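Retry 2 of 3 after timeout on previous attempt. Resubmitting structure tokens to design endpoint.
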């Protein structure tokens, strides 16, 4: 009920059109009923008693009713589609906006396939519901009401005979509806599962190929498909039995009328027109009556989809900007961590009691075994997550006081993997900046040692990343990322194992670009190769989420066994 209320809120802006659509439906049902009403005079006046003067009015009536039905049916369908598509557009916009507002933890937990299926499959189910439900309820409901009226008008005794089956039918529909609801839930979750699976396997195709698990992957997919098929067929069985079953119950009713009415026509107490019109009307009632039973399925499906859609829409981000957040324009003195504790998963502590200071302008290095929490430190500084306790301060102010926009504008992060969108090289470099002029973009690319390879591409800076034949090496992608940072010109540069995935040849070019990038900035560097951080002003050694040492390279080398071990193991590589 709650869900339907919320859906109605989405329809509310279009209520005028909705009312027009309903008016059209009333006219559709009226003109159709008029057509049915004309059957009796046609038989009795024209076929039975050959009264010529009735031919023209009856034909004129049929034409008029047919014409109105055509016009109003068209308008009704158009209006409903318009409303359905508008609601879908609005909901999808809201969903995307909400999705963009989520904190990173949400994307780590939710599978991409599941999110995509919500934005596509669920939304389309809802759209179908918005178009089908009012049409089936109102138009077909009116059909049934009008037809029943006509039947009563024609012969009330026969009408009652037809409707003895009614309570049985309602019971059947109610039982089946329950089954449909649970089965439709299950089929939806399987759809999401298949989306996720496909998405993962397609992006992970390189791994699959390299370990030749294609046959296994095919088998897994086959099983998922079979499973989906079975669940879907179970849903279908419940769904499609409704129509034929009701039709059959109706046929039993009609057979009764035929027997009874046939006798009355033979002994002359009822006209042929009444008999034929009655049978014709009763038979025409099946389709709308069946639609009415479909409403049940449609409502169940649409509300189940609505439930999932609103679940996403209701999700609030875990890291939020304060309502009175202020802008931070620059780092003046230092960044400090005060007793910072953090856990991604409650109870599984990742950072413990981190206290440190990063002074403006220095090169601050973080080293430690993999999994020790180095990237997590950065995640907290950029406020992708908030500490579970303790504070992070910039020049003495808690970073939670600043707007996301101004805080994140202070810093840029370069990691091993560079995210590029399917757009031109120039657009990728300028992404996230207000820069549009080609000279600045080219200048940034030159500084990043990227101009050379870009100018060799088929369309230079206008080459699209996804274009056929354009494949960039890891080093080239990374130099694009560096050019992007050059353009953003942040005060704080964060390098998270930026060069660890590169071969030494391209590392040299990247390293050189990075050196230029570091000039005049505060740099936090997490390095895989300890040789690159020998020159850091301060080195923080972390181990299992705790600070295990701090100082210059010489100091740490002299007093920390772990540091010595890390350093030496690298030279053995
Ligand atoms: N999104 C996450 N959800 C849960 N645990 C995480 C997540 N990211 C990292 N971790 C865990 O936190 C610990 C520290 O990770 P990380 O900071 O990435 O280490 P490092 O960068 O030093 O290799 C690891 O044990 C890792 O498994
Ligand atoms: Mg890391």
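Retry 2 succeeded. Sequence:
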């Amino acid at each position: 009920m709650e869900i339907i209320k919320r859906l109605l809120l989405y329809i509310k802006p279009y209520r005028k059109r909705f009312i027009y659509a309903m008016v059209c439906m009333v006219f559709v049902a009226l003109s159709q009923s008029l057509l049915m009403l004309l059957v009796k005079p046609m038989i009795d006046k024209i076929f039975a008693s050959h009264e010529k003067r009735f031919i023209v009015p009856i034909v004129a009536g049929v034409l008029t009713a047919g014409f109105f039905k055509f016009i109003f049916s068209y308008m009704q369908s158009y209006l409903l589609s318009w409303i359905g598509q508008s609601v879908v557009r609005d909901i999808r916009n809201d969903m995307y906006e909400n999705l963009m507002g989520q904190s990173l933890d949400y994307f780590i937990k939710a599978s991409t396939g599941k999110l995509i299926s919500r934005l596509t499959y669920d939304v389309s189910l809802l759209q179908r519901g918005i178009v089908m439900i009012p049409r089936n309820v109102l138009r077909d409901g009116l059909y049934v009401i009008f037809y029943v009226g006509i039947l009563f008008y024609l012969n009330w005794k026969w009408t009652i005979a037809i409707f003895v089956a009614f309570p049985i039918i309602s019971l059947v529909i109610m039982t089946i509806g329950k089954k449909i609801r649970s089965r439709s839930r299950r089929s939806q979750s399987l759809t999401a599962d298949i989306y996720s699976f496909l998405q993962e396997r397609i992006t992970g195709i390189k791994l699959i190929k390299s370990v030749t698990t294609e046959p296994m992957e095919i088998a897994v997919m086959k099983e998922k498909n079979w499973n989906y098929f079975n669940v879907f067929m179970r849903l279908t069985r419940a769904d499609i039995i409704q129509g034929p079953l009701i039709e059959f119950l109706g046929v039993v009713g009609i057979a009764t009328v035929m027997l009874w009415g046939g006798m009355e026509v033979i002994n002359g107490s009822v006209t042929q027109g009444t008999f034929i019109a009655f049978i014709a009307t009763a038979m025409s009632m099946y389709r709308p009556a069946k639609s009415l039973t479909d409403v049940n399925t449609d409502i169940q499906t649409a509300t189940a989809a609505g439930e999932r859609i609103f679940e996403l829409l209701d999700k609030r981000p875990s890291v939020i900007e304060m309502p009175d957040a202020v802008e931070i324009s620059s780092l003046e003195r230092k960044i400090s961590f005060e007793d910072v504790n953090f856990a991604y998963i409650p109870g599984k502590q990742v950072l413990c009691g981190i206290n440190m200071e990063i002074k403006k302008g220095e090169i601050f290095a973080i080293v430690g075994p993999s999994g020790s929490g180095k990237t997590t430190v950065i995640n907290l500084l950029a406020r992708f997550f908030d500490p579970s306790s303790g504070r992070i301060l910039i020049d003495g102010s808690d970073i939670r006081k600043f707007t996301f926009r101004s805080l994140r504008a202070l810093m840029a992060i370069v990691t091993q993997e560079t995210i590029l969108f399917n757009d031109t090289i120039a657009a990728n470099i300028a992404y996230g900046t207000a820069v549009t002029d080609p000279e600045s973009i080219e200048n940034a690319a030159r500084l990043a040692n990227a101009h050379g390879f870009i100018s060799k591409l088929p369309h230079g800076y206008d080459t699209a990343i996804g274009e056929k034949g354009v494949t960039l090496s890891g080093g080239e992608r990374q130099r694009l990322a560096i050019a992007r940072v050059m353009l953003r010109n942040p005060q704080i540069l964060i390098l998270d194992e930026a060069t660890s995935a590169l071969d030494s040849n391209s590392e040299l070019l990247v390293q050189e670009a990075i050196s230029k990038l570091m000039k005049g900035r505060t740099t936090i560097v997490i390095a895989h190769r300890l040789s690159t951080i020998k020159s850091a002003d301060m080195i923080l050694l972390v181990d299992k989420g705790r600070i295990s040492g701090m100082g210059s390279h010489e100091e740490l080398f002299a007093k920390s066994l772990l540091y010595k071990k890390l350093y030496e193991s690298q030279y053995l590589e």
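Attempt log closed. The first strand starts at residue 334 and ends at 345.
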